[in-house]
Every structure is written in C-alpha cells, then in structure tokens.
Amino acid sequence: MDLRISTTPMPLASALAARRMAQPQGATPEAGFSSALKGALGAVSQAQNQADELQKQVQLENPKVSIEETMVAIQKAQVGFQATLHVRNRLVQAYTDIMNMQV
C-alpha cells in the first residue's frame, strides 16, 4: 500500500488566497457573521424608531403623516423584530445543542 501525501495546497486555501489577491488595495475585508448580525439589529432598531416617530406624529395630528403609512411602518418593525427573535432563539438552541454534545 502506497500512501502519498499531496504537497498541493488545499482547494479552499487556494480559493481564499485568490480572493484576497483579487481584492483591491485598501478595500475593507468581507463582512462576517457578527457584522451582518449587527447590521440587521441596527436596521430593526431603526425601523422601530421610525415607527415610534410616525406614531407620535399621528397622535399629534400632523397632517403630513397618514395613518396608513404609520401602520405599514409598525408592521415592518414588528416583522423585523419577530425575525430577529427567531434568529436569537435558533442561536440559543444551537449553543445549547453544542454544549450538550459528548466529547
């Protein structure tokens, strides 16, 4: 039986190196999961703040703000919050599953 170890780099490592070479100098590196999560949380927070502001304007009877626009903003904020809540629950479940694994 002849076992030969390949000296060529792994395909994933060579693909990553090619990607780094293709990136222009001074470009920011790709966003990871944490930065994507922070961005999503920021977007949900902004949607909630916008819905709150529109709701206040409707309560103050501002003629420039319609109730329909306010209700749509509230629903968008609610959907974003529910999605964020589901992601959080899945992350907690994944963490719990990993912690309960036998090593």
Structural class: mainly alpha
How many DSSP-defined strands? Answer: 0
Largest sheet properties: none
Mean pLDDT: 82
Query: What's the helix count?
Result: 3
Q: What is the chain-wise order of helices and strands?
A: HHH
What is the overall silhouette?
Answer: flat
Strand content: under 5%
Which stretches are low in confidence, meaning pLDDT under 50 for 5 or more residues running? Answer: none
Defining traits:
single chain; 103 residues; mainly alpha; 0% strand
Report on this structure.
The protein has a domain at 33-99. With 103 residues, it is mostly helical. α2 packs antiparallel against α3. The chain has helices at residues 11-22, 33-59, 67-99. The longest helix has 33 residues, at 67-99. It contains three helices and no strands. It is found in: Bacterial flagellum basal body. GO terms for molecular function: cytoskeletal motor activity; structural molecule activity.
Short description:
This protein has helices at residues 11-22, 33-59, 67-99.
Write the layout of secondary structure elements.
Elements: H1 11-22, H2 33-59, H3 67-99
Helix pairs in contact: 2-3
